[in-house]
Known about the structure:
The strands form five sheets. The chain has a seven-stranded antiparallel sheet with strand order 1-10-11-12-8-9-4. A five-stranded mixed sheet has the order 18-17-21-20-19. A four-stranded parallel sheet has the order 14-13-15-16, sandwiched between helices. It folds into three domains: 12-332, no CATH class; 347-454, 3-Layer(aba) Sandwich (Rossmann fold); 456-518, no CATH class. A hairpin with a 2-residue loop joins β5 and β6 (115-120). It starts with 11 loop residues before the first helix and ends with a helix. It is an alpha+beta fold. The protein has helices at 12-17, 59-72, 84-101, 141-146, 178-181, 186-189, 196-199, 201-211, 238-241, 244-247, 253-259, 289-292, 296-308, 311-316, 323-332, 370-387, 403-415, 428-440, 508-517, and strands at 35-36, 41-43, 46-48, 77-79, 106-112, 115-120, 125-130, 152-159, 162-169, 218-227, 260-271, 278-288, 360-366, 392-397, 420-427, 448-454, 457-462, 468-472, 478-480, 487-495, 500-505. The longest helix has 18 residues, at 84-101. It binds protoporphyrin IX containing FE. The site of protoporphyrin IX containing FE has 22 residues, from β8, α8 and β10. Protoporphyrin IX containing FE binds next to β8, α8 and β10. It comes from Gordonia desulfuricans.
Amino acid sequence: MTLIDTPALAPTAELVGGFPFPFPEDRYRYSTNVEPAGEPRATPVGTWGDAIVDIDADYRHELDSRASILATDPSRHAVLPHMVPATWDAMLTLMRELSTSYPETMHLESLGPDTWRWRNDLLGITQEFRYGDAATLPEEPLRYITGQVQEDIALLDQRSDQLFVDAGVVTFAADWSFGFDVGMSFLEIHGPVPRVRQMGVITRAHEFLKRLQPHEPYRRTNWTLTIDRRLDVSTEIYPEWGPDRETIQTVDDAEFGRRVHLRVEVQHLIRLADSGALMFLIRTYMLSLEQLATVEPWRARAAEVLAELPDDMADYKGIIKYRDRAAAWLRAAAPAPTPPPLGLPAWPTSPPEVDVTGASFLVLAIGTDDDAVLAGNIARSWVNTATNAGPTRLLVLDSLTEPDDLGALRQSLAEARTGTRILVAGGQYDVMTALAIARAAGAIAAELAAFVTHTRDLPLYCAHCAGTNRVAGAPGEVVVCPGCGVAVEIHAHHSAALGSFLGSAAEPAASAAAGEDA
Ligand code: HEM
């Protein structure tokens, strides 16, 4: 019997942290999406891709699944006779990769010409072998090494200007049959994929792969949806998982989010130096929609991709019956916007768009510290848009605590025409102060837009000295008023017109603490 379900043993945080989220934009189309391997790719919650062979917390678990599948179905493993040298090449290449990426647990030692000692401490294996001598290994080399890596492996032979899938161990195929495809050409294998012929994706990939050189590994990702955390969704056992595509439509939303998974393959393409064969590694990662939704940018993007995916691609991927619901599920999982507590300004979480109906534009970037770079970038991007819509002026200032900078701002506002859109990027003190000065100069709310790069400071109006000053602090905290020296509490109460928060004398205990800090 095949293992039909392989729940992850790794904790969600680990799965999410190493997940190769595959969508660079809100729309997915086939492309010859290859890139050099080995470059770590940062994600909002972690990183992936620094090692070609990836070992994670599910290592043993997935290897057990593979062993069980191979024991049940020998067609998942095939080596055509001319591929035997390539299997040794693949095995030794992978051992080298493992020992380089995991030197604590994986060791490859040369014992002399063609003789090696291999140690895999994770599995407690020590094996001496003579390269090319089958009698020195307990199993056929490809099978031996796929017992120690989570990747599926296919080996392609290159002859008559074509690539042929002539060997492999593939136990975790996503809706295809390795046993059926063995011996086929690269172009034949991709025959069922819609669109790619017209787009030239596969012919370009074929040309690229034929030219691939040793020591220049490449990688790409591919994706689909899988119901439950099943690694093995091969054609061979379709009766075990195919019906889920129907039944998943009737489950409630909670179950739907737990069971539908985004399945991503990281595929490595490596020219083997000795045999000249091409090694194709397929490593499969899965996150349930529920897990995916814990990373907001992933939730939002996956929802868009699924909703927009053309029907022929969704049909080919076998997800047409439930992808709309998956998109809807992800959209519904959007976090409810949390309104700021009453009395606090509601700053946008991303830079607002330029209102291009403006007659002209005044863009302000204010700041001197690290956040000034961000303010500068945002202002530049506003300027790029605004210059196409009308006369645009960019003012870069250090701080509105500086009389010169205040003067420059007032001067620019005095020169601004009616209908000028004013966009401000900077820290909270500078943004609130600039907006208040703009209002005082006659600007209305619809003409103002702002992005706050940090909220470490704010303008504080002191109820005792009636002065407004910049302070480092947040509502609820007690600070010393720079105007009169009284310890004042910053209230969660602000005036957009005045451009300040209210401060008033703090309780004595808090005042004492503020005095000590000051
Ligand atoms: C740059 C290299 C490659 C590109 C651009 C590429 C592209 C694709 C694309 C776009 C699909 C459709 C996937 C989907 O919609 O889910 C696909 C499917 C597939 N690819 Fe590749 N591929 C590449 C390399 C390979 C290699 C080296 C193999 C060798 C085994 C392979 C085997 C397959 C198989 C078996 C399928 C499923 C076909 C079916 O439905 O029967 N691919 N490939």
